[in-house]
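Quick one, probably user error.
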């Protein structure tokens, strides 16, 4: 039987939180109720915390000084964590102790129970140790992390530490709603503290607020709305559609579809600070969807 101890971290392992009553666990519910076992622990709450720009794996595994306390699962940028720090930082390190109940039947044997530790998400490069033994490593900020920590456990209190490296300003990892400026502008997030990274464009921090698509006669009109700087922004709008079968070549200006019958229309705009325009694509010769012909779009 496999048992799980759960740590519900915010998406970047940089938590923060306000003062709470001693022993109170924030977000005490199981993060995935449909998978809840009788034998589980919620490791949310106060953790020892350190942050800094210079760090390596050996130093993080051995560090003894933790000047701060942080409340998991809140990120360090949030006031709920007790820190409320919005400046850039590349490394954060968490530490706490936990005890595996004897009734779980974990004895270290091949037939004994196993203990899994679950981190809801941690951005960006995550390393996990239990009692000094490395039990997990993960890169990415959007998916859960599961570690089998059984072999590293011993009776009584066990030390758990989690190191997260996340350098939003480096340009070498995926970015999302974070802002690469030291003085962020809403609605972008303050820095690399939580949430996964994504759309960024050639040195200008902007994102799509929404994209409106409407049909007009035989046209599809695409209107993207951007938020943020557009001084150095190229906007590429493309529509891939499947043309009707047995059309003469002239029906599509002589263009040949690919092997599956698809054509791609693409328009590129150099915005130069201007608002993105609406783009109309002709669907006059497109093959429409129907229950008997569902394969008309990629």
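Nope, works fine. Designed sequence:
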């Amino acid at each position: 039987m496999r048992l799980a101890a759960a740590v519900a971290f915010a998406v970047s392992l940089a938590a923060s939180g306000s003062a709470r009553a001693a022993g109170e666990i924030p977000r005490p519910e199981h993060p995935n109720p449909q998978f809840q076992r009788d034998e589980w622990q919620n490791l949310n709450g106060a953790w020892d915390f350190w942050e800094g720009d210079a760090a390596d794996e050996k130093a993080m595994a051995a560090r003894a000084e933790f000047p701060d306390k942080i409340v998991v699962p809140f990120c360090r940028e949030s006031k709920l964590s007790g820190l409320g720090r919005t400046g850039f930082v590349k490394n954060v390190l968490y530490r706490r102790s936990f005890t595996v109940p004897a009734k779980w039947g974990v004895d270290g044997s091949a037939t004994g129970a196993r203990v899994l530790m679950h981190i809801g998400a941690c951005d960006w490069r995550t390393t996990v140790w239990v009692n000094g033994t490395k039990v997990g490593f993960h890169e990415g900020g959007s998916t859960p992390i599961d570690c089998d920590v059984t072999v590293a456990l011993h009776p009584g209190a066990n030390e758990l530490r989690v190191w997260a490296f996340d350098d939003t300003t480096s340009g070498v990892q995926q970015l999302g709603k974070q802002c690469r400026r030291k003085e962020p502008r809403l609605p972008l997030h303050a820095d690399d503290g939580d949430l996964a990274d994504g759309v960024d464009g050639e040195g200008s921090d902007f994102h799509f607020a929404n994209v409106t698509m409407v049909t007009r006669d035989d046209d599809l009109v695409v209107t993207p709305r951007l938020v943020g700087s557009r001084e150095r922004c190229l906007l590429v709008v493309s529509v891939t559609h499947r043309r009707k079968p047995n059309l003469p070549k002239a029906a599509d200006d002589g263009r040949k579809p690919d092997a599956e019958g698809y054509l791609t229309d693409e328009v590129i705009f150099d915005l130069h600070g201007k608002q993105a325009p609406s783009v109309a694509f002709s669907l006059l010769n497109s093959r429409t969807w129907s229950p008997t012909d569902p394969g008309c779009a990629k």
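Residues 1-22, 183-205 have pLDDT under 50 and may be disordered.
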